[in-house]
Amino acid sequence: MGEARVSFISESDYLAGEELPGLSHEYVQGEVFALTGASKAHGTIAGNIFAVIRAHLRGTPCRTWAADVKVHVESAGAYYYPDVVVTCSERDLAADAPKNHLEAPQVVVEVFSTSTEKVHRREKWMNYRQLPSLREYVLVDQERQWAEIFRRGEEGWLHEIILPGETLPLRSLDLCLNIDDIYEAADVPRTAEKEDC
Q: Measured between alpha carbons, how far is 41 from 34 in angstroms, rounded to an integer?
């Protein structure tokens, strides 16, 4: 019986491959993971969040993207495609900054399903929080109206759960997102509590 082999590729080969047409991939310490298509609910939720944040940031030095700009977490050897990402960093927005990824995001939003929740809660959260620039990490459930925000405070990271009828405060952007606006037209049921956290 033969041995299973895992192929590792260099960061430069990964970045070169991402310039080619086709699927996008995330990269973690030499391993590459293809991103699959999203559901309608996922796309609607991410689009709603992006639209509100983009409108709010108009005229400011901050910029936001939805799903098409990578975040580089150098200390973890990783590149991820968040569903929504905001940067206010001159380092990211300078004329000579990398064109296809950010180094210093301020807010990262991930919309998750049952199949992706563990990756977002564990691996990605552990890696994203290594970024000194990150102020808020938001998880939004695509199967029930439920959101969570992890906010960097003076004594570490604070955690807050947002339920139907409440607002999600993005304090680093001076913005409150109404959960009804996040789920508008997504056909996601309202849920007052989550059975398995």
A: 20
